[in-house]
């Protein structure tokens, strides 16, 4: 097992080399790199969690156009916030954004706390994200340890343990803090993220272009992609569900508001059923007479911890059927439905119906 040296700075002028590389090659024209306020940086950092930059850019631009500051976000309806997030996944991020905006607007005059500890007290913001917000927007000396930085440091020191282990993560934090410079803190934070995202990538790292190549222990082994060590794999369980696409005589579709917690929390979805006698069970559940039933193309949607096999069923209801609107169920025409906060697989089903 590789031991991390107690001496944190085995590399001469680590931050200088990283910053010099950033000055020449770093990304400086991303939307959130303009007018770097804590609010704008916060939104970008939350969106970028487990999401690629190219995916985030259009979402970020639409989000900022609708919610340009913390007060406009705080005053928005959660449904509207979720609609702007629809397709990004990990929807708890959006709900926490909304909660935090309300706290900042109501209790802190719209201002972010000035310390990492203060920022981490807000919903959905961890230590690394808090450090990124403050270092980039305010120049605070605070180390980050996102996935990119973990990869850079794990390769640099050829750490042969999974970074998610508690002791390994603690050591990575010590390294990250030891390398963080006192000056140009925001540029250094961005540089470390860029280094991991553009050169020290998961596969096919461009080691020959890296400013740290001469000291990289992972590269010296000849197998840099062996680091960081991957999380021990567990087979993902497979679940299955029937999605009920109920349409009335006007062609509207019935949507169900999901609970605020759990998968797809707070989003609009299609009702689900596990019943074997699907037609009878659906008629009894919604007190409606089904005149036509058609199974649609099924598909698999993969979450971080399981696969979900989805079988959509289209049901047409007779003219006299009435399913009352309430807080849980509402009828929407397809065009309007697609403007709501929808999980990606539900959007896929409704878009296929609209094309028909």
Overview of the structural elements:
By secondary structure, the protein is an alpha+beta fold. The protein has 2 domains: 14-146 and 166-199, Hypothetical protein, domain 2 (Endonuclease III, domain 1), CATH 1.10.340; 238-355, Nucleoside Triphosphate Pyrophosphohydrolase (Alpha-Beta Complex). Helix content is 42%, strand content 12%. It has 15 helices and 8 strands. The protein has helices spanning 14-25, 38-47, 53-66, 70-75, 78-85, 92-107, 116-120, 127-138, 147-156, 166-179, 185-199, 217-220, 278-286, 334-337, 344-355; strands at residues 238-247, 253-257, 268-269, 272-273, 290-295, 299-302, 307-317, 329-332. Strands 1, 4, 5, 6 and 7 form a 5-stranded mixed β-sheet that branches. 35% of the residues are buried. Mean pLDDT is 93; it is low at 1-10.
Helix and strand arrangement:
Elements: H1 14-25, H2 38-47, H3 53-66, H4 70-75, H5 78-85, H6 92-107, H7 116-120, H8 127-138, H9 147-156, H10 166-179, H11 185-199, H12 217-220, E1 238-247, E2 253-257, E3 268-269, E4 272-273, H13 278-286, E5 290-295, E6 299-302, E7 307-317, E8 329-332, H14 334-337, H15 344-355
Parallel strand pairs: 1-7
Antiparallel strand pairs: 1-4, 2-3, 2-8, 5-7, 6-7
Helix pairs in contact: 1-11, 2-3, 2-8, 8-11, 9-10, 9-11
What is the helix tally? 15
Order of helices and strands: HHHHHHHHHHHHEEEEHEEEEHH
| Residue windows where pLDDT falls under 50 for at least 5 positions | 1-10
Mean pLDDT: 93
CATH superfamily label of the largest domain: Hypothetical protein, domain 2
Q: Give the helix proportion (percent range).
A: 40-55%
Under CATH, the topology of the largest domain can be stated as: Endonuclease III, domain 1
| Cα distance spanning the termini | 59 Å
Radius of gyration: 24 Å
* Domain module count: 2
β-strand percent reads 5-15%
Q: Based on the coordinates given, report the CATH architecture of the largest domain.
A: Orthogonal Bundle
Q: Based on DSSP secondary structure assignment, what is the total number of beta strands?
A: 8
Q: What is the molecular shape? A: elongated
The CATH class name of the largest domain reads Mainly Alpha
